[in-house]
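so my prof wants the structure for this chain in the tokens format not the other one, which i didnt know existed until like an hour ago. anyway here's the sequence
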Amino acid sequence: MIHVENSLHSLPPLPWFNSGHNFCSFQMIMNRTRLLDSKAIVDGNLKLILGLIWTLILHYSISMPMWDEEEEADEGRQKTPKQRLLGWIQNKLPELPITNFSKDWQTGQALGALVDSCAPGLCPDWDSWDQTKPVENAREAMQQADDWLGIPQVITPEEIVDPNVDEHSVMTYLSQFPKAKLKPGAPLRPKLNPKKARAYGPGIEPVGNVVMKKATFTVETISAGMGEVLVYVEDPAGHREEGKVTANNDKNRTYSVVYTPKVTGMHKVTVLFAGQHISKSPFEVEIGMAQGDSSKATAQGPGLEPTGNIANKTTYFDVYTAGGGGDHGSSGEEEHGPCTIEDKGNSSYRCTYKPTQEGAHTIFITFAGGQISKSPFTVTVGEACNPSLCKAKGRGLQPKGLRVKETADFRVYTKGAGTGELKVSIKGPKGLEEPCKRKDLGDGVYGFEYFPSTPGTYIITITWGGQHIPRSPIEVKIGAEAGQQKVRAWGPGLEGGVVGKSADFVVEAVGDNVGTLGFSVEGPSQAKIECDDKGDGSCDVRYWPTEAGEYAVHVLCNNEDIQHSPFMAEVVNAPGKDFYPDKVKAYGPGLQSNGLAVGKPTEFTVDAKQGGKAPLKITAQDGEGNPMEVQVKDNGNGTYSCSYTPKKPVKHTVMVSWGGVNIPDSPFRMNIGAGCHPNKVKVSGPGVSKTGLKAFEPTYFTVDCAEAGQGDISIGIKCAPGVVGPAEADIDFDIIRNDNDTFTVKYTPPGAGNYTIMVLFATRPTRRRCDVRRRQHPKSPFNVAVAPTLDLSKVSVTGLGDKMTVGKDKDVTVKSKGAGGQGKVAAKVTGPAGKPIASKVEPGLSADVAHVKFIPREAGPYQVELTYDGVPIPGLLQPHSLPGNRPIQGVYREATTDFTVDARALTQSGGDHIKTVISNPSGARTDALISDRGDGTYDVEYTPYEEGLHSVEVCYDGSPVPQSPFRVVVTEGCDPTRVRVHGPGLKSGITNKPNKFTVETRGAGTGGLGLAMEGPSEAKMSCTDNKDGSCSVEYIPYEPELTTSTSLTTGSQSQVRVSYDRQPITGQNQLRQAANHSPYKVKVLPTHDASKVKCSGPGLNTTGVPASLPVEFTIDAKDAGEGLLAVQITDPEGKPKKAEIRDNHDGTYLVSYVPDMTGRYTILIKYGGDEIPYSPYRIRALPTGDASKCMVTVSIGGHGLGAGMGPTIQIGEQTVITVDAKAAGKGKVTCSVFTPEGAELDVDVVENEDGTFDIFYTAPQPGEYVICVRFGGEHIPNSPFQVTALEGAPSDPLLQQSQMPQYYAQQPWVQGQTCVSFITLHHSSSLLSVLCPSCLCLVSGFV
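here's what i got, hopefully its the right format
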């Protein structure tokens, strides 16, 4: 239909109003339409306006084309426009009965015929259009007319095929065809007529064809146009098979068709041309039986097995027809591709096919028109093997990081990769197969483990269905066994993560010297890495993966993977929109940094109310790397209650993750205290003994808090009323902290009587008050009794005399009235043979009287030793005692003492002559160490362990020496001079680093060790008891101080004071002759900072330096602290170059070197082991002078000057080469001599005043030597030279020492073998310069 708007202004302009003729015609039309005037148009009279429009269309669109193009007769002019248009269409379509503009167009075929008539080939197949699809037919014709004839679609296809369509609309649309013209490039097609194609031949005859015989026929298409021939053959069971069609390329456009029927019965042969049946198609062909017996034919092979065949993989089976007679058969497969039959002779056939789909397939095998035995066969074809869909991942496949003696594992995923056999082969560095454990994990996943035992490259081959999976073969480099680890790593980020979220883990130091840490993350995407050093020996590391997949996280220490690195983390996509790990919180006392104690349960809460849905995971470790169990309880309201119990007083770390993502503030670090255990406080020593204490005599006791945990100690000592006054009184005492969690308490009882000693151990402050609760030691208070002070002058002995009777009781009375003390009398009696005599002490009638009784059994001198409270009674007459043998004082218990025996009057060479016997007060003996000096003198050393009088017998060849036995009084006390202090921490120190020394108190007696350090800043100090009479002291100074000294170095003077029993250590005893004593002065040096080192000078000029001439540069380390300076220079050939370093004594150094060849030099500068800024420097050496003008004036080895002449020299003798460089200009001669093994010899080059240079070297071994002589960095003519070193005299005389220049003859090193100085010590500055022989790297530092 034509749609007209109700506004005249919306009408499109009519293209025909372009001439006066047309305008007059329009006026005529307006006159005829008398009812329509301007007022009707302005008023919008739709009926009148539509009438006007139709009149215009009828006149200008329908009538005009015929007037313009045809010369019409009077008869034609009398026809109406409708009749004229219909007549024009009928002329164009004579084969169609077109009589109207409505019903005759409703199939759409008439439109196609009209389009093809106006433009032959645009719709050539209109007559074959399906009449049941009128809209599609009309749309096709109208679209072609619109695209290529320029006819707009003023009516829709649905409207034009409607039987009730308005004829005016159809006429308006069809009126555009008479003037239509074809556009260039239209897709014209020849007209097809499949019915004019014909088929002929025996293959389509109704009878005469038999099974398994090729049936042929021919298709001729010359009259049908251009198209494709397809032939399909359908057997009685409905199985359809395409025939083989071959174009003959002849003038009649014929095709040869071949097909082979496999079963008997009626077959339908369909022949299509251009997709349509040709004449008489389909043909019915009866297939007859061939000769033979199909029941005697058999078939077998993998292609007929019920299982085992897979899609897209060729398989086969064999058919055996022996005994069946007749012609061979063929096989047909349902839903398979074609089957290839190969005649193998002897009545056997090989049938090969390739299934393309998985599932159940049916294979029919016929012979002589009938199915063979067991046919049809059912074959289940598995999924096609697709190795590209397999994937393998795991730590065991990482290219680096794995080590020997570690289990390497990986997994292979085959789900979705079809059916195939999985094979894994692992070959070690020697090419041998390595054992590998395999485990089926289900769902197409297989786990593998191998245990590499040899470092090197391992090749892992993984195949699926005989084909390599992606990345296979995989190369894995296995490193050496992991040694002692310096760091460890743990945390959720080493196991997994979420895309777009940080994956966090913790790295902790194991020990002090950690080294350099490094991290790398390898996986499907790049991941940003951050590291946060916490300053407590640990750091937090996080990375951000942007894609899901498996990531390998490498944790490196000194550029090597730590144990268990790389860690394999499986990163997944976020679980959903409702996932907010950043809104999860954790809080509670169990996460506080302080206030926790060993053995006390603590708890914390995780609030995940706003975190969405995800699993909670908590991991924890103590400072020693031991995992810690955390109990988690789900409260059911989005919160979780967590609790744990610390087991060791070390730092603990807790990581909380939500859905694999670390929550805010995690990880949490807690310092666990040792707790408070007063029951483990140990109190011991004479000061808490119930007896043995005496008034006014110092005593002590020890409080050991090593196992008591946290807390401070409190001591209280009180005496009973009557000791110092009528009431109780507090006694003064001193507490000495021994730095090993022990305390020494010293006090002096002011009088005899009862004393109470209270020992308290603090726990923790209470919450409401600031007081401290204290717990009492389980055995506290200690009640001790103090005896009066000894007054031995009040002790009297009677009944001893100087003579005794053998066999008669000897009774000696000891009266001690007023002597004080405990009143204990002891006796020791020694007979004439030196053996002890049994004696006993019995109490007298009163408490101050005692009787000593013994019986002498033989005649001779006896020695009776009587003591009162362990002290020898003075003035006692000892029978037969030698004159002058007074008790020796000043010997302390547990303090090593010594004496010297001078026997030079009897021997001058020493020998085994001296024996000693040392008897203790208890009767036991103490071992002594005798050292023979070899000159007749002997050193004797022993350590007494009992208080009281000791007897020291010294014999020479069995005879007592004069005054033997000696009496030695051993008392409680100490000798600080016997304390030995040693270690590097007493010589120098470094700020912010531990500095150590050792204090040995063995042999110094009993006493408290005191340590103190004084300096410009506070220093942390700790002491560890080694349980062997020594302790290790460690201190950390924090600030250096600039001091003036002869070396002008930065440092500070700190004093370390070491005291023993409150007395400073003054050195060793006279035998050791120790010179050092407390306090010790230690120079503390600052830690180096290589980033503050600066370099400048012509030797670092990037535009170039002159070759062969010395260049230098300055290194400024004034602000870099103290450190070792190392300079390594590498020449263009990659060999180390010697450099000289001079200390300017102001924090700067002058470095000089000679670039002996042209090319690029690399200068590596380190300070304190770290590279300085801009290092390494790369400097280019430029040529100087003209090397081509140099000549060798003295022959090499005495032979000619040409290269390759083969001169000879003698090994072990110095050889001289003279180079004349007078005309070469500015520059120097340099020389390198290489041994047969390629090593470089030491060469001396001396510049003479006459412009010549002398080169000296000595060949150490026979063989071919190469000599490179350069001037200004470039080879001189004929360089390099070759010489041969021989043993014995050479064939020609060599340049001898007498021929050397005077300069060399005067050098001291000329007289002997040349030596290279590797160590130079500058005494003025204590700077040590060391030249490394292997790399020529000069290292300097203070000593």
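also thought this was worth mentioning. The chain is about 5% helix and 40% strand.
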